[in-house]
Amino acid sequence: MTLRFNRFVAVTLTLLVAGCAGNTHDLLNKTTVTVPASDIAATHEIFVATTRQQATKDSRQVFDGDRSLTTSYARVDVTVPKVHQVGAIERAKGSANSNPAKQFTATDVVHYADAPQFAKAVGADIAMRGDRALVFVHGFNNGFDDGIYRLTQIAHDTKYPGTPVLFSWASSAKTTGYIYDKDSANAARDDLEATLRMLAKTRVKSIDIIAHSMGTWLTMEALRQLAITGDRDLGGKLGYVVLASPDIDVDVFKKQMIRYGKPDKPFAVLLSADDRALKLSSLISGDKPRVGDYGNAADLASYGVSVVDLTKAKGGDGGLNHAKFADNPILVQLLGNRLRTPAGLAADESPADLANVGEGLGKAVGSVADVVITTPFKVLTIVTGG
What SUPFAM superfamilies has UniProt attached to this entry (predicted)? Predict the structure, then answer.
């Protein structure tokens, strides 16, 4: 008991120091900061469906960590500075104003009155951008701002060719809020399912999903619910599913996949044996292994998914190694190369194509990292560099 308690304290202190997210959650500036247009790399329109309450105590947060029994809809415009580095999220410290020339900056928020109004707006954007949508479901200990900035970074760095949509569930944004967050994720399952169905009713041809950490649990539950209704692929519109650092009990995940069935489109699980954030989750859960740091890739792959082992790749989140998929420049570019190819076409490609991409990127930036991909049929090692 003493050893287990000491491990719990050690991992908890690491999380408190490094954090899965920032310590403040202001999204909007107190005052407008104007910079020359030449200092801005791009402006991204992030569409939002959220089960958070609209913030009343601090309107700069826009939405806070309290739960709503209904889904709210919005759009947030975010600028990315020219000085941005791939994999990074440049942010102002504390509650200081963001400088658009140096940091990600939310410049405008549009609230939609109801689901039909939102569906019309997001549908128009999807039609304009090429009939694809990328849904991002954030993880534990995330404020509304964290999800907005992370999706902006992913969309920008991967050069995603469609409409970014954030599904933001009511995380408390506190390291000590694990149980609250788990309950919030459970409460949001129907809302995510409804959001995916809404998107499927637009002109969209492919709905890609990236979920992170505890957001993978929520995503799997929504997909399981779709499968139960007989519409697991959203009428053929479901594209890529990427589960990054899944905070899901391994046995629970297997049962979810049994109910969902073997995927028809690319379905990837990204894990890392050195994920320190998942060590805490495992301890809280009675030392039960989580999918995100599970050591038997072949076991997971037998359920029809591709398992991508990122253990030997470096993370950029202060040693937590919980967000490598998005903060490691090599991995971000690999992800981008996948996402820019529609899922229906990527499903027919040889894994060797991915190996060639990885080698090319590694040589370009002089980085070396082994990425091991285990599919139901073979194991492939990508050496990014050399």
Answer: alpha/beta-Hydrolases
Of the candidates 302, 294, 241, the one whose C-alpha atom is nearest the C-alpha of residue 268 is 241
187-206 tens-digit pLDDT: 999 999 999 999 999 999 99
CA distance 105 to 284: 36
What DSSP character marks residue 62? S
Q: Measure the CA–CA gap between 317 and 18, rounded to whole angstroms.
A: 7
| Contact of 125 with 47, CB cutoff 8 Å | yes
- Residue 34 half-sphere exposure, CB side, CA atoms within 13 Å? 0
Q: How far is CA 187 from CA 69, 80, 137, 183, 192, in A?
A: 8, 33, 14, 6, 10
Q: Which CATH superfamily is domain 2-355 in?
A: Alpha/Beta hydrolase fold, catalytic domain (3.40.50.1820)
H/E run at residue 124: helix 115-129
- The single residue listed with the structure tokens 């049929």 is 377
Which of 106, 60, 102 minimizes the C-alpha distance to 85?
102
The whole-angstrom separation of Cα 154 and Cα 11 is: 27
SS3 381: strand
Is residue 120 a contact partner of residue 195, using CB atoms and an 8 Å limit?
Answer: no
Q: Which of 40, 42, 68 is nearest to 54 (CA)?
A: 68
- Contact 224/256 with Cβ under 8 angstroms? yes
Query: Closest Cα to residue 222, out of 142, 342, 151, 137?
Result: 137
- pLDDT 10s digits, 86-123: 999 999 998 899 999 999 999 999 999 999 999 999 99
SS3 per-residue string spanning 10-24: HHHHHHHHHCCCCCC
DSSP-derived pairing of the beta strands 40-54 and 63-81: antiparallel
pTM of the model: 0.90
For 32, 72, 168, the CA distances from 45, given in Å and listed in that order, are 18, 17, 15
Q: What angle do CA 222, 228, 230 make, to 5 degrees?
A: 110
Which H or E element spans position 44? strand 40-54
- Which residue from 117, 124, 315, 126 is spatially nearest to 212, judged by alpha carbons? 315
Integer Cα distance of 73 and 56 in angstroms: 16
